[in-house]
UniProtKB/TrEMBL annotation:
Residues 1-40 form the signal peptide. It holds the Pfam family TPR_16. It comes from the Bacteria. Transmembrane segments: none annotated. Keywords: Signal, TPR repeat. It comes from Azospirillum rugosum. InterPro entries: TPR-like_helical_dom_sf, TPR_rpt. TPR repeats lie at residues 191-224. This is Tetratricopeptide (TPR) repeat protein.
Length: 536
């Protein structure tokens, strides 16, 4: 047993790492994480249950399996020693949650010491998977004074608040919202509960409600840095903005494309936004197959536009209705999403959506009909996964059914380092299986493919780093290797840099290197570009 305790206010030895981290230190961390068994990397935490009433209180510790517990009492100090570790359970919150019953707590690897409040006694009940401690007053029972009743009410509100914190940490956001709502109805000026409820609304995707709660909290605590930062981050991600992107892409021995794009969002009221996108694409290619089978150079431009009406429903659902327009095609699409505390599911359909994946589609008015379903899940604090499937039909102007295919996309990501720089490793699947593809014969009797959709099955392993060098400068780096089971493989990587000289202005640069697997070829593709964002 471990007999060394640490005070509830002691510094955590796993405090925020320095930002300056060398390559070899990161490599050693990755190798160690890969070589260490999963069971050794995870610490099973004990579950803590604390309840408080007017005449008594209770503290229960529950382990995920059988455990042997040895209690001891020395004056006001109650010691609990266990045969299993405590893990990272939130034991430091016990004095606040049991205010008036427990004055302090100290704990170590497998031991817990409670300092009881004056006049409090404790009865310990040992069970197969834990222990329950019942607290009572030593003095004779009687009616509480007005001051004692007020103190009891304050203490109970503190207990309910920390219970809401625990529910949020466990992912029970809806239950935490209900408890926090009761607290705010009893005390509308409770800043902590208001801010915590804002976090809950944010996690459920109800960002407008979260902004309103942050505004209310800032009225009660003006210029509180954490509240200002949380609100600004929400508006940065979801608020009204206009964005300009420009990119240069070159596929080796094929085409060069220069793309300019204007996107943005506007609030129109009633939890509804309008999203817009306008794109101009200049293309230079020496050989492009036309719809009639002729091969000729193409040096020209193409434009396309998209207008989307997005509505957020009170039941934490979202609908998107889109209109598409490009040369020789007009289409529409609809996507509906369902969001939970740890997951999000989306289903959608698109009709005659412009597609510029292939040069033939750019030149000849490429379009795609699509039905798809995707699901994202946050499995734990470090693990996340997503999976999606779809059915596609490709065509050109005047020929709407040239190929059909099924797509499967997925990823599993593990966060190696949660502090700065945030470091993660991921496996990514990008597959498309062609079920049917139309062949044509030109005037000379030579067969050709008007739209060369190719089967691919790309498996990629990626390492990503994200860091903020200062409050206004951040970067992200991604590197890895992609292998196409039906084609070629090779390294891939990207680099992005973001700079915010003003609160509502952001500039960025990016570069990438990969392979054009979507075209069914192993040729390399490089890109470079930048963007500018203006937030309203």
């Amino acid at each position: 047993m471990c007999s060394t305790f640490r005070n509830r206010h002691a510094q955590n030895p796993l405090s925020r790492r320095g930002r300056a981290r060398g390559f070899w230190a990161l490599l050693a961390t990755l190798l160690l994480a890969a070589a260490t068994p999963a069971a050794a990397q995870t610490k099973a935490a004990v579950r803590v249950e604390a309840t408080r009433e007017e005449t008594g209180a209770r503290l229960a510790l529950r382990w995920p399996g059988a455990v042997r517990v040895d209690p001891g009492r020395d004056g006001r100090e109650l010691t609990i020693r266990a045969s299993r570790p405590l893990g990272d359970a939130p034991l430091d919150t016990v004095p606040d949650r049991l205010q008036g019953w427990v004055d302090n707590v100290r704990y170590g690897y497998d031991s817990l010491l409670l300092v009881l409040a004056q006049g409090v006694t404790a009865e310990v009940s040992v069970e197969s998977n834990g222990v329950t401690i019942a607290f009572t007053r030593e003095r004779a029972t009687g009616r509480l004074t007005v001051e004692e009743q007020a103190a009891e009410q304050v203490a109970q509100r503190r207990i309910d608040y920390f219970r809401a914190v625990t529910l949020m940490e466990q992912g029970d956001v809806r239950e935490a919202r209900s408890l926090l709502g009761d607290l705010l109805r009893a005390n509308p000026n409770d800043v902590q509960s208001t801010a915590l409820l804002a976090q809950g609304e944010e996690r459920l995707g109800r960002w407008r409600e979260a902004v309103g709660l942050y505004d209310r909290a800032l009225e009660l605590a003006p210029n509180e840095p954490s509240l200002v930062t949380s609100k600004n981050n929400l508006l940065r991600e979801h608020g009204e903005h206009a964005r300009v992107d420009w990119d240069l892409f070159q596929v080796k021995n094929a085409d060069v494309q220069r793309i300019g794009r204007l996107t943005g969002s506007l609030e129109v009221g009633g939890n509804t936004s309008v999203l817009y996108a306008l794109e101009n694409r200049d293309v230079d290619v020496d050989q492009a197959v036309r719809a009639d089978g002729t091969v000729a150079p193409f040096h020209g431009s193409r434009q396309r536009a998209e207008l989307t009406l997005r509505h957020d429903w009170p039941e934490v659902q979202q609908s998107r209705l889109s209109l598409f327009a490009a040369q020789k095609t007009v289409g529409a699409g609809y996507v509906h999403g369902w969001r939970e505390e740890r997951s999000e599911t989306r289903a959608g359909v698109a009709w005659r959506e412009p597609t510029y994946t292939f040069i033939e589609g750019i030149v000849g008015g490429g379009r795609r009909d699509r039905v798809f379903l995707t699901h994202e899940e946050r499995l734990s604090e470090r693990w996340s996964a997503n999976l999606g499937a779809g059915w596609n039909r490709y065509g050109l102007a005047g020929a709407g059914d040239l190929a059909t295919s099924a797509t499967v996309e997925g990823a599993v990501r593990y966060v190696l380092i949660r502090e700065w720089p945030v470091t993660s490793i991921a496996y990514v699947l990008d597959a498309e299986y062609v079920a049917r593809r139309a062949d044509r014969v030109d005037e000379a009797g030579v067969a050709y493919l008007p739209l060369p959709v190719q089967t691919r099955e790309v498996h990629a392993l990626q390492l990503a780093l994200d860091d903020a060098l200062t409050d206004y400068l951040r970067y992200s780096i991604q590197g890895g290797y992609a292998y196409d089971r039906r084609g070629k493989g090779g390294p891939q990587g990207s680099l992005a840099l973001a700079y915010e000289p003003l609160e509502r202005l952001e500039l960025g640069l990016r570069a990438s290197y990969t392979r054009a697997t979507a075209r069914g070829s192993g040729t390399t593709a490089t890109g470079a570009g930048g963007y500018l964002i203006m937030r309203y």
